Amino acid sequence: MTAFITVVAGLSRLSGVAAAGLIAAAVLVVCQMVFVRYVLGQSTAWQTEFVTYSLIAATFIGSPYVLLTRGHVNVDLLPIYLGGRARFALALFAAVISFLFCFVITWRAAVLWYEAYSLGWRSGTIWAVPLWIPYAAMPVGIGLLTLQYVADIASLILGREPPFGIHPEENP
């Protein structure tokens, strides 16, 4: 189980790097778009669509990294004041519910991706991107997020991580 947790953590870190790369690519394309449009006076055809898809993909693909580093917004008032067993139970409940939600979203996103792929869907723009390409970010990103939840649940049960990242000696 330790190997699984380590591999998933590595995949989550890799997804964070991929998300950062997508954001960097979007920034570069915006700079290129501004140069082409306002300096060269030419029109742009694909840049806005690329930036939109890249930023959305970065959001989905970067989500496992955010969970790994506990970078999400968290209201921890209740967990701070709960005792050890209640805090553990709440953390386990929250992680299992989140896992189930992500599992369902992964499944539905995979179905959507497959429909786009098998039916040859394309965007309605001049660039006409095959939509299975940007849609792939949804099942990949949320699928990795689902795996990260499995790893978090395992870490919680095995005692590798304290519930909500709060050590018992940190009680108020």
Commentary on this structure:
With 172 residues, the protein is mainly α. The chain has one domain (2-170). The chain has helices at residues 2-39, 47-68, 77-81, 84-118, 132-135, 137-158.
Compose a concise summary of this entry:
With 172 residues, the chain is mainly alpha-helical. The protein has helices spanning 2-39, 47-68, 77-81, 84-118, 132-135, 137-158. 73% of the residues lie in helices and 0% in strands.
Assembly type: single chain
Catalogue the unreliable spans: none
Shape: elongated
- Main sheet properties: none
Helix content: over 70%
Q: How many separate domains?
A: 1
Arithmetic mean pLDDT: 93
Could you give the count of β-strands? 0
The termini sit apart by: 33 Å
Specify Rg, calculated over alpha carbons: 20 Å
State the order of secondary-structure elements, H for helix, E for strand: HHHHHH
**What share of residues are in beta strands?**
under 5%
List the total number of helices.
Answer: 6
Which key features would you list for this structure?
172 residues, mainly alpha, 6 helices
SSE diagram, text form:
Layout lengths: L1 H38 L7 H22 L8 H5 L2 H35 L13 H4 L1 H22 L14
Helix pairs in contact: 1-2, 1-6, 2-6, 4-6
